[in-house]
Amino acid sequence: xxxxxQTPKFRVLKTGQSMTLLxxxxxxxxxxxxxxxxxxxxxxxIHYSVGEGTTAKGEVPDGYNVSRLKKQNFLLGLESAxxxxxxxxxCASSYFPGxxxxxxxxxxxxxxxx
Amino acid sequence: xxxxxQSPQSLIVQEGKNLTINCTSSKTLxxxxxxxQKYGEGLIFLMMLQKGGEEKSHEKITAKLDEKKQxxxxxxxxxxxxxxxxxxxxxxxxxxxxxxxxxxxxxxxVIA
Lengths: 114, 112
Fold this sequence. Notes:
heterodimer, A: mainly beta, 4-stranded antiparallel β-sheet, 11 strands, B: 6-stranded mixed β-sheet, globular
């Protein structure tokens, strides 16, 4: 039962470097999400997708890009990493957002930008 | 958009004691979700409440939804060390089929 898998689990980047975080789900969910979690700020929605080929902005989208080329994968990209992007990133998926169905979360990616 | 405020921010209780965590919404609630997170791990779904007055229980955890007050409460009876972690409430950000937004969480410690 893999559920939602995030790769990598840990990463250290230098300021200005780029990277891509990969999220994969094996539950055939339509909706996928990227959140970041910071001390005192809780979970904040970065971007989300309502289906293959679609993406939408969340609460804190600046500095990030996403792609959903395949239904099971949702990629989060940082083009030029900044120390303010040091955070724990969580991917989640659900059949539908909001009502009636819960979101399943991955184990998180701890990113440090130095 | 939806904003959720949780109280208290942190809580330390003695093993065996009862406790309550509250989640108050800035807007009408179209469902409320409770998750638990252990340090360094992902979120684990606990319960989903959809209707005003609804109450659900799982083992020693009970959650209630008061739509009129735009509030939900999570009550743990006879707390155990296994209950320790961060509890987060989430709700659809715009109502209906919209992604969840979350409160900032309540950190619970249970001491022997």
